[in-house]
Amino acid sequence: MTPEKAFDEYHQAVYSFLYRLTRREDIAEDITQECFLALVRAPERFDRARGTMKTYLFSIARNLALKHYRDYRREAPLEGEAEPAADPRATLELRSAAAEAVAALPQLQQEALILFAYEGVTLEEIAGIVGAEVGTVKSRLHRAREALRRTLAPYRKVGKE
Amino acid sequence: MEPLNEDELSDRELDAILREWTAPPAPAGLRSSIFPVASRPWWRNLWTASIRIPLPAAIAMAMVLAVVAWPWIRPAAPQANAHELQPVAVLRPVIIRSGE
What we know:
The structure holds 2 protein chains of 2 kinds. Chain A is mainly alpha-helical. Chain A is about 70% helix and about 0% strand.
């Protein structure tokens, strides 16, 4: 697969993943660009035997996001600090509530949840992307969903309306 | 999995709320920032293409080119046709002695 074709097929998924991870469009754009430039510069690094092009790109994107987070920790935190609104019915902002609740998760749970729930990546693929065992990923995902069930519970009725 | 109590959402409820958080579309200019050359026809690049050669290498290349091309660019010597040559009827050698 050529870098151009990989871009056409996966750039939106990579961008969405980075946007949800950083919650910043400009940073997501920069890292998506870096991600595909890395593929253009060294396409031979992609090893088909180790995974698909999609998981390879997610892996690069994740590493670049972590590097960005380490370099600019104070400017663009990957881990959310905001709490959900005290009275969710007053805001009716399910979208921001979901974003903030996901951002409040520990980083490893956050990335597992985003890849699984939003990008449709399987547990095995996530394990390859983050360099962990499948059981570990499953556990992170379970803890993430448990936390979100409690955090977002006040929004239940809002969601049904 | 159903919620254990009222303080927790079910899987379905949680998924419904998570789906509310949509990501924006990727910027349209992203492709051209990664593949700027590929987006232009190849022949258009010829008009702006350039190469850098060190001056000594350029001089050496010019000299080699001149030597190789010399046989083709030097003026041709006049050639006489065989039928224009005539035998000498009377040979009159002129002898020049020293002192004359």
